[in-house]
Amino acid sequence: MFFHIFKYRLLMMLRDKQNLFWLILFPIIMSTFFYMAFTNVLAGETFQKINVAIVNETDNQDFVKMLKETDLCNITSTNQEAATKMLNEGKVSGVIDVKGNMQLAVTQNGINQSILKNVLDAYNQVTATINGVIEKNPEVLKTNFLKEINVREPYTQNKPIGTATNTTVIFFYALIAMSSLMGGTQAIVDIEMLQADQTATAARVNVAPTHKLKALTSSLSCTVLFHFAFVLLSLVFMKFVLGLDFGKGMGYIILLVFVGCFTGVMLGAMMSVFIKKTGFKVGVIVSFTMLGSFLAGMMAVNIKYWVQQTMPILSYINPLNLVTDGLYSLYYYGINERYFINLAILVVFGVLGCGVTYFKVRRQKYASL
Question: Which pTM was predicted?
Fold first, then answer.
């Protein structure tokens, strides 16, 4: 009986063309739009060494050495006339004359020019401070003064992360999370097939000798697997057609997506048993999913970070954020505790939804059918 119900539930979903559109085409269309919008968004953020011309290099070789050690610039040593020509032609971002009081010449404002100015200002300030101390107290040169002031205390910790650093993947993660949790709308049919006051099919199911637990389990199992298959298809499209880098651990990604689909269907089923009108059920589940997507960063990545900083509890009770954050943690840090915490909370939500649904359906009695 389990496989009989499973089979016909599968046939029902395959014949629902509107449902197939939202399952198959919508995630693919949205991911394609995201790809077109964000594929080159980070191209301008890739750091390129700054081209800079140095005039009178021999007058301050210490500064030139320091500039080379920073690995920030491509340095060209030349005379003033040639440097000015290079600057006017846009071949260099700035010209630094290191003779006497060092001067920076630029023709426009920009990130490169700001970096050069900050480097030059920092060097001048440190140099002026050192010279001032030595002038007032020459005896410090006999101590380790110069070595001591060169020590900089670090206030950050190094944590290993993956080589992938594309922040726009958050949009795609939120889309995957939305697709996973949208399975709740399909669970409406599963519940209505067991509520005799909703459909004629449900009335026949209730008079049949099939246990409600078996009917519910077979129907919901089919819905979860059916929905997961198409979300997985969307994931394959993003990875192999659009060429998105999801980092390592594809098996863990698939596991998280499956749990997301399971949780989405179970939460949708739980909401359905407490609401009578089909249209209102759909509205509640879709609104819940879209609000969760918004808070998970689908419309604006900064929203996700704002929620984590100001209302961290909300990020743990939002199933869509749990999927997004699990994928995010895999992408940046690999297999880690954060991933398993998100996965475990999702499982708890899914099991809770399944349990509440069953106990609610099991206790429903009808005076007549």
Answer: 0.69
